[in-house]
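Researcher: Go.
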Amino acid sequence: MYNGIGLQTPRGSGTNGYIQTNKFFVKPKNHKVETKEFEAGQGTAGVKKANKEILEHDRKRQIQLKLVLLEETLIDQGYTDDEIASKLADARKALEAEESTTESSTKIEKSIKHITKRLQQNTYTDYGSEFRCQKC
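Model: Structure:
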């Protein structure tokens, strides 16, 4: 007997009493996964920013789609090719100017909303320093 395992004596058992381990027995591994609660900044690693080139291409594509629709309506109304080309050029300039102003205005509006919200809370944090509202 070895560590309480095996036969008391190998006599009469037809074996030599040698004990070997079961090589096919796989001990279950204890896989405990430690999870943490979400803190500030966690969970955003998988979020990618949009590619500027793709966004610009999509904006140009939307403008081109509007111009194609305008061209079809002008053809249906019976305009000549020269008139259609000039009206499309004017429309393209107007649409590109409109798109550029709306992009900058939306950025400005977002920053204004953020600043006013912080001022209503009487604190405005910018570049790591904290300023108190002058009225308070």
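Model: The CA atoms of residues 6 and 20 lie 10 Å apart.
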